[in-house]
Design brief:
about 180 residues; alpha+beta; seven-stranded antiparallel sheet; 3 helices; 7 strands
């Protein structure tokens, strides 16, 4: 027996009321369409590494549009049990400034996070902006896109080991990275 249009409207209203009653951001069971019983992703604690040493820095290419130089401290490269690729990024600007940050990258969601910044005295300061941000491939400041697409997340998949990441840095590009990245 077919359902009358009025019944469809009533069911839609009830479903809408139920969703509207849920608090904003509440988990209402739509975590994973493949497996709703799968455990939720949980980020592991990030340990502050030793401050970067010049001998451990590996330069990587970002763009012909930037005059800054970009480096990863290869000794800090780690892949957590949570799937996050963590590393220390060093940026040397054309004007002579040096910016140092401890960062993480989630390949599956194409996001990055800054955990801490390096200070002139060789100490770390934890980030006050503790949130994941999307990796954007913009002409300026595209170093996260370069790290993601070319080195640490080829084809959206995280490297499996620090050695794999160090090899990609040595080669200038991960062997599995797509050859036609904009």
């Amino acid at each position: 027996m077919p359902i009358e249009p009025a019944s469809w409207r009533r069911m839609a209203w009830v479903a809408g009321a139920w969703l509207a009653a849920a608090p904003a951001g509440a988990d209402i069971g739509f975590r994973n369409f493949d497996d709703p019983d799968a455990p939720r992703w949980q980020e592991e604690e990030t340990v502050l590494p030793a401050f970067p040493q010049d001998a451990n820095l590996r330069e990587f290419y970002v763009s012909e549009l930037t005059r800054h130089r970009f480096f990863i401290d290869a000794s800090t490269l780690v892949i957590g049990k949570d799937g996050v690729v963590r590393y220390v990024l060093v940026i040397r600007t054309q004007g002579g400034a040096t910016n140092i940050s401890l960062e993480g990258m989630r390949c599956e969601t194409r996001e990055f996070k800054i955990y801490a910044t390096g200070q002139r005295d060789g100490n770390w300061t934890r980030s006050r902006r503790d949130e994941w941000r999307p990796i954007e491939n913009k002409p300026a400041n595209r170093h996260h896109a370069a790290l993601s697409r070319d080195l640490f997340c080829p084809n959206g998949v995280a490297i499996r080991s620090p050695d794999e990441g160090r090899n990609a840095l040595r080669l200038g590009r991960h062997p599995d990275a797509a050859s036609s990245v904009p």
